[in-house]
Amino acid sequence: MIRVVVVDDHPVVRDGLRGMLGTQDDFEVVGEAASGTEALTVIAAVRPDVAVTDLRLPAPAGAELVRLIRSRAPGTRVLVLTTHDTDADVLPTIEAGAIGYLLKDAPREELFRAVRAAARDETVLSPSVAARLVQRVRTPVPVSALSGREREVLSLVARGRTNREVGAALHISEATVKTHLQHVYAKLEVPDRASAVSEAHRRGLI
């Protein structure tokens, strides 16, 4: 029996997923949650095999929630089920440890296969997400895509410096630091500083 927790902030979606998964003899929905905080509590209590979760939730959400689930409940595989498939959503989430990434327009049989694959610790991606990952591998952002100042800012952020500390070290204002970081996020197509540092290390930019 594959024990599943459903995480989505829309009650209708949770009801629908619980109903669909309940049609399969080898699935048991053992909990549900409407926010990241609730998801962590439920997962810690019931220790499911698979957590099927949306990305956009009351915080923590997205890649941060995936990281927290994987660190606090390493036996639980995270299967993302969402409407969002941009690079800023997909890449940080996969890097954070999600075992699968499906879009909500996937047929129910595809969802069933994905849950079973996740329980076996096998990666499963929707075709559009797989294509996006392949494209990213083939066309990495070159070092020259980041300016010298942007690399300096990101290098200091990678050392754990706050925006104020980065500004003091580089003799620029905190607002300028924030502007440089926004440019970095856009160029690397990531949502936050942690993802930017991870992606920059992966590509050898810092």
From TrEMBL:
<dbReference type="InterPro" id="IPR016032">
    <property type="entry name" value="Sig_transdc_resp-reg_C-effctor"/>
</dbReference>
<protein>
    <submittedName>
        <fullName>DNA-binding response regulator</fullName>
    </submittedName>
</protein>
<feature type="domain" description="Response regulatory">
    <location>
        <begin position="3"/>
        <end position="119"/>
    </location>
</feature>
<keyword id="KW-0804">Transcription</keyword>
<feature type="modified residue" description="4-aspartylphosphate">
    <location>
        <position position="54"/>
    </location>
</feature>
<keyword id="KW-0805">Transcription regulation</keyword>
<keyword id="KW-0238">DNA-binding</keyword>
<dbReference type="InterPro" id="IPR039420">
    <property type="entry name" value="WalR-like"/>
</dbReference>
<feature type="domain" description="HTH luxR-type">
    <location>
        <begin position="139"/>
        <end position="204"/>
    </location>
</feature>
<dbReference type="InterPro" id="IPR001789">
    <property type="entry name" value="Sig_transdc_resp-reg_receiver"/>
</dbReference>
<dbReference type="InterPro" id="IPR000792">
    <property type="entry name" value="Tscrpt_reg_LuxR_C"/>
</dbReference>
<dbReference type="Pfam" id="PF00072">
    <property type="entry name" value="Response_reg"/>
</dbReference>
<dbReference type="InterPro" id="IPR058245">
    <property type="entry name" value="NreC/VraR/RcsB-like_REC"/>
</dbReference>
<keyword id="KW-0597">Phosphoprotein</keyword>
<dbReference type="GO" id="GO:0003677">
    <property type="term" value="F:DNA binding"/>
</dbReference>
<dbReference type="InterPro" id="IPR011006">
    <property type="entry name" value="CheY-like_superfamily"/>
</dbReference>
<dbReference type="Pfam" id="PF00196">
    <property type="entry name" value="GerE"/>
</dbReference>
